[in-house]
């Protein structure tokens, strides 16, 4: 039995040809529709369940899905998927007022959480999902490294520290890394993140047999935030060169 069989995702509307148009026609909020196979290993269901849970807090996104069976596929559902060029699953399509805004498909059977969240963010949908970096702090990093003012940077660091303790973010598993990494960069310089990525990655590789599971998970989470930092530094550098 596949792990996804029988999974009912809380907050996700199951669509068919009769309900599809009615649901996506909302002009009160965006509608994210996931087209996927019914028989997967469950990872995509878990991911979409996390997105649905996060969207319920924001109130600006409705999550829905069309499940295509691998065996004995429903002709009606297949036709629906075909009409939206969504036969090659998984595909995520964002609608507003009945019109397609954007779509995401990375070509993999299992969807990349970070890239999916980034795509949503780029389309104005900001979600706080465990295991993914936080759009609010990603922006703060961008502002911080784009600024040449020490006062502005100090202000942004304080902002990150306060936000990390707020009710909105304090329970998130990655949030503690944002202010600590930014504080380190403020002392050691903008190249701190790239150097720290090398150090942590090397440690994970060289000591892979001696690092326990919890420590490895913690270091992997830190790397995710360090990558955000490194990208922010690189983007700021490119923008400065173009001036």
UniProtKB/TrEMBL annotation:
- The question of whether ATP-binding is a record keyword is answered with no
Which residue ranges does the record assign to the Endoplasmic reticulum resident protein 29 C-terminal domain? 134-227
Q: State if Endoplasmic reticulum is listed as a keyword.
A: yes
* GO CC terms of this entry: endoplasmic reticulum lumen
Which residue windows are coiled coil? none
Q: Please name the SUPFAM superfamilies in this protein's record.
A: ERP29 C domain-like, Thioredoxin-like
An example Gene Ontology biological process: protein secretion
- Which UniProt keyword terms apply here? Endoplasmic reticulum
- Residue limits of the ERp29 N-terminal domain? 10-104
> By what name is this protein known?
Endoplasmic reticulum protein ERp29, putative
Organism of origin: Perkinsus marinus (strain ATCC 50983 / TXsc)
């Amino acid at each position: 039995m596949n792990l996804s069989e029988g999974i009912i995702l809380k907050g996700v509307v199951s669509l068919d040809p009769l309900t599809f148009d009615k649901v996506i026609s909302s002009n009160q909020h965006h509608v994210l529709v996931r087209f996927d196979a019914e028989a997967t290993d469950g990872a995509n269901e878990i991911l979409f369940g996390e997105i649905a849970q996060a969207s319920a807090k924001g109130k600006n996104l409705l999550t829905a899905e069309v499940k295509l069976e691998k065996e004995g596929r429903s002709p009606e559902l297949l036709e629906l998927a075909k009409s939206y060029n969504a036969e090659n699953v998984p595909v995520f399509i964002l609608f507003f007022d009945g019109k397609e805004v954007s779509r995401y498909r990375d070509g993999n059977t299992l969807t990349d959480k970070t890239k999916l969240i980034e795509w949503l963010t780029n389309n104005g949908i900001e979600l706080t999902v465990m295991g993914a970096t936080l759009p609010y702090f990603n922006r703060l990093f961008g502002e911080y490294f784009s600024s040449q003012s020490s006062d502005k940077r100090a202000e942004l660091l304080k902002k990150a520290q306060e936000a990390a303790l707020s009710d909105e973010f304090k329970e998130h598993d990655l949030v503690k890394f944002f202010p600590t990494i930014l504080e380190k960069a403020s002392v050691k310089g903008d190249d701190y993140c790239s150097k720290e990525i090398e150090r942590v990655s090397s440690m994970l590789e060289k000591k892979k047999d001696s690092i326990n599971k919890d420590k490895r998970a913690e270091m992997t989470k830190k790397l995710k935030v360090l990558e955000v930092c490194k990208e922010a530094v690189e983007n700021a550098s490119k923008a400065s060169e173009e001036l």
